[in-house]
Write a structure and sequence with these properties.
single chain; 162 residues; alpha+beta; Arc Repressor Mutant, subunit A; 2 domains; three-stranded antiparallel beta sheet; 5 helices; 8 strands; elongated; OmpR/PhoB-type domain-containing protein; WH-like_DNA-bd_sf; Sig_transdc_resp-reg_C-effctor; DNA binding
Length: 162
């Protein structure tokens, strides 16, 4: 499995942006959760559809010589669920199918570059709004400052299509 196998960006649960190229989840609260190599591969496989345990183990650990233990497999499932929870998605979206494998049981969609940019802007606006109304935060954002931040964000999340 190579990085070029997954050309699409995803919107998970209509809230979290998954950027396979960068191996990150962009959470609604502006957290940037970096996925491990194996978690990235596992999530990509799950977004392709229901996957058997054997197939997942082959795809994820294909470059490693030797056998992969069940505990290693279950550990990766646990870590991926934990990363999703940190991004604000229930870990239950990864459904274990007894004696078969795993399935992504949530809502997801491919992100067009324009939609991705809009969603990233919304995420940043929500984060800025939360900061500005937080009584513990002494920072006040004026409208011009918000415009500058949005311009900065829109430059960061430009996705090229090849």
């Amino acid at each position: 499995m190579t990085d070029t196998d997954f050309q699409h960006n995803y919107l998970l649960e209509n809230e979290v942006v998954f950027l396979p190229e960068e191996r990150v989840l962009l959470a609604k609260n502006s957290n940037r959760i970096e996925l491990t190599e194996n978690n990235y591969r596992m999530l990509c496989c799950l977004l392709e559809g229901e996957v058997s345990k054997k197939k997942l183990m082959e795809k994820i650990w294909s470059e490693q010589n030797g056998a992969v233990s069940d505990s290693c497999y279950y550990g990766q499932v646990h870590l991926l669920r934990k990363a999703l929870i940190m991004a604000g998605i229930s870990g239950d979206v990864i459904k274990t199918i007894p004696r078969k494998g795993l399935k992504y049981n949530g809502v997801y969609a491919f992100c067009a570059p324009e939609h991705l940019e809009d969603r990233c802007r919304e995420i940043e606006m929500e984060h800025i709004h939360q900061q500005s109304i937080n009584p513990r935060n002494d920072t006040f954002y004026d409208p011009e400052d918000l415009k500058r931040k949005i311009k900065k964000i829109s430059r960061i999340f430009v996705v090229s299509m090849t």
